[in-house]
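Saturday, quiet lab. Running sequence design on the structure tokens for the scaffold JK sent over.
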């Protein structure tokens, strides 16, 4: 089994358990479920913001513990102040040491779009995302069928959420182009073996229709890389470990942005 297979298998068990503890009807009555979401496109294209989707991530399956010290509020507030266009928060516990409470904590600190970074395998998780304060959900083509992508994205749009679809190759892209998707992210990290190459972004950028916000994800650690990706046609850049692996992620993003 690949790492992705293990995560998805665990996720299905996790969702089944969550449904017994908090039924969907209860989620729909959470105060944050009724809030209007920030619009991802507006924030990405805002002239005073950087296009960076900065991530709060404590750990990963490939790197282990990345940062077990910096608090959610401290980090995401620093990201926003430095000009991030959106914030991504990992909510998977077993593999990334995140929680849904991290999402709510981030929501309290932010006035820009918030992404629930999660391996979504069930519509219940989309309702959870809304109930805990997300504006954006992530759908990963590598672990979903085309039918699931359409079904899940349509449900997300019903709830007022933005949808970021993640692809890794042309096959995943070609089967996933639906009007219910707002942004397409090219993951430079192969989720099967966690190897990273920016070639994936450069290979796919011109194959993504212009109706979608184009996002390059993972493996970005240098402002020059963003400049090159912008020239190639990308409008947004998801950066995780590069800031989180430092002693002070807020200072790290601030210095990074100055070089842009």
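Result came back. Writing it out in full:
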């Amino acid at each position: 089994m690949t790492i992705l297979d293990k995560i998805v298998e665990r996720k299905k068990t996790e969702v089944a358990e969550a449904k017994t503890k908090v039924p969907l009807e209860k989620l729909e009555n959470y105060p944050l479920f009724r809030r209007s979401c920030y619009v991802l496109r507006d924030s990405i294209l805002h002239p005073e913001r950087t296009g960076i989707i900065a991530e709060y991530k404590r750990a990963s399956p490939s790197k282990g513990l990345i940062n077990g010290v910096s608090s959610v509020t401290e980090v995401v507030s620093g990201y926003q102040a430095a000009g991030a266009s959106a914030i991504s928060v990992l909510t998977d516990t077993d593999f990334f040491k995140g929680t849904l409470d991290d999402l709510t904590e981030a929501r309290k600190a932010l006035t820009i779009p918030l992404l629930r970074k999660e391996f979504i395998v069930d519509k219940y998780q989309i309702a959870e995302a809304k109930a805990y304060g997300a504006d954006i959900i992530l759908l990963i083509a590598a672990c979903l069928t085309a039918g699931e992508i359409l079904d899940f994205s349509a449900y997300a749009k019903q709830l007022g959420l933005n949808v970021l679809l993640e692809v890794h190759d042309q096959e995943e892209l070609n089967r996933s182009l639906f009007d219910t998707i707002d942004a397409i992210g090219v993951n430079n990290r192969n989720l099967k073996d966690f190897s990273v190459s920016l070639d994936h972004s450069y290979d796919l950028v011109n194959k993504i229709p212009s109706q979608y916000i184009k996002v390059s994800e993972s493996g970005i650690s240098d402002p020059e890389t963003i400049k090159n990706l912008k020239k190639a046609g990308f409008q947004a850049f998801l950066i995780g470990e590069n800031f989180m692996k430092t002693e002070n992620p807020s200072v790290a993003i601030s210095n990074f942005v100055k070089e842009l």
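Notes for JK: The CA atoms of residues 42 and 165 lie 17 Å apart. The chain has a mean pLDDT of 96. Ask whether to fix the surface positions before the next round.
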